[in-house]
Write a structure and sequence with these properties.
360 residues, flat, binds guanosine-5'-triphosphate, binds magnesium ion
Length: 360
């Protein structure tokens, strides 16, 4: 399962965001480096489509998809060379598939550190870049030598990609914000770089800044450009809301004009950042969202439900969720001849409702 890492300077509110996302109880404290061990949790992926299907099918249970987050130790200027939690944060970041950069904007005299989100982003980028430069320095020569000894074109291409990456990193630009071509970034996969992962920024605003969220996010969004989106969240508020029961939570958030809160949007953006999609199944027993990798074919998706369904896959009956809702349910869709029959090479789409025919 792919994971996102929460990455940020000490006291940015990473653990608070983790708790808001997962309803968890990671240690939150006003002092820096309160997070020492990495904590893993699953954030539910709210899905209005699923709720509609469940009503339509009178499902006894509704099961949402989830996305995994890791709360990582905080970073300070100098982390790449071992300051603060140094290696701990580096190892934590290396193991995740995408990064959520948590940038503090809230003011609080009791909490040390900068409240300028762009400054935080620049510090973070620099530390990640320095760590990548250090790791490539040890890899470059080795890869070149291996390529020569084994007369291996793949290794030679990797060595070239390393040189290209190095040239970018040495200008202080992280790979996620560079114009390095996608195939080159793909060739760097074996180099396990920190800045070669997709990113998303969360700007952590205070309750008193709710009115100016857009202004606070703008410089971060401009800096990232097409590299990733910036979402403003009042993390502390939503972390507190996450501890309440659902009715109270909605009342609190709606009272502040936050709707269902911004955290579900973060979970969705994160899910997409990992290249993940959901297909749906619905019936009286349950309506459920299942996770698959964008581009996956029907048998692979069947295998997400159960390996037997993949092994014995015959065909899938498919309809997009909104059409199903419009037609008033599975039986109606069937009678109307609106269920498509798809075979082994059908690429499942986000929001498809499936029923798998199989035989083992
Ligand atoms: N006022 C205010 N305080 C916040 C907000 N978000 C987090 N905090 C406070 O900031 C401090 C740090 O929050 P944490 O969630 O522990 O931050 P962290 O990034 O996990 O910190 P480390 O693990 O120590 O690197 C805590 O005292 C939080 O209560 C916020 O939106 N507003
Ligand atoms: Mg923490």
């Amino acid at each position: 399962m792919e994971r996102l890492g929460l990455v940020g300077l000490a006291n940015a509110g990473k653990s608070s965001l983790f708790n808001a996302l997962t309803g968890g109880h990671a240690v939150v404290a006003a002092h820096p480096f309160s997070t020492v061990e990495t904590t893993v949790g699953v954030a539910p992926l709210p899905d209005a489509r699923l709720d509609q299907l469940a009503r339509l099918s009178h499902s006894a249970k509704v099961i949402h998809a989830g996305v995994e987050f890791v709360d990582i130790a905080g970073l300070v200027a100098g982390s790449a060379s071992g300051e603060g939690m140094g290696n701990r944060f580096l190892a934590g970041i290396r193991e995740v598939d995408a990064l959520v950069l948590v940038l503090r904007a809230f003011h609080d005299d009791a909490v040390t550190g900068t409240d300028d989100p762009l400054e935080s982003l620049e510090t973070l980028e620099l530390e990640l870049v320095l760590a990548d430069v250090a790791s490539l320095e040890t890899q470059a020569e080795k890869r070149r030598k291996q390529a020569r000894l084994r007369k291996d074109a793949t290794l030679a291409a990797e060595a070239d990609a390393i040189d290209e990456a190095m040239a970018v990193l040495q200008t202080g630009v992280p790979l996620f914000r560079s114009d390095l071509a996608a195939p080159v970034r793909e060739q760097l996969r074996n180099s396990f770089l920190l800045t070669n992962k997709p990113v998303l920024a969360v700007v952590n605003v205070g309750e008193d800044q709710l009115e100016s969220v857009d202004e606070l996010c703008a410089p971060v969004a401009a800096h990232l450009g097409s590299a990733g989106e910036a979402i403003g969240v009042c993390v502390q508020l939503e972390a507190e809301a996450a501890q309440l029961d659902p009715a109270e939570r909605v009342e609190l958030l709606e009272g502040l004009g936050l709707g269902e809160g911004v955290v579900p949007r973060v979970a969705h953006a994160a899910f997409h950042l990992l290249g993940l999609r959901t297909f749906l199944t619905t019936g009286e027993k349950e309506s459920r969202a299942w996770t698959f990798r964008a581009g996956a074919l029907a048998p692979e998706c069947a295998g997400v439900i159960h390996s037997d369904l993949q092994r014995g896959f015959i065909r899938a009956e498919v309809i997009h969720w909104d059409e199903l809702v419009e037609l008033g349910g599975w039986q109606h869709a069937k009678t109307a001849g609106k269920l498509r029959v798809e075979g082994k090479d059908y690429a499942v789409q986000d929001g498809d409702v499936l029923e798998i025919r199989f035989n083992v």
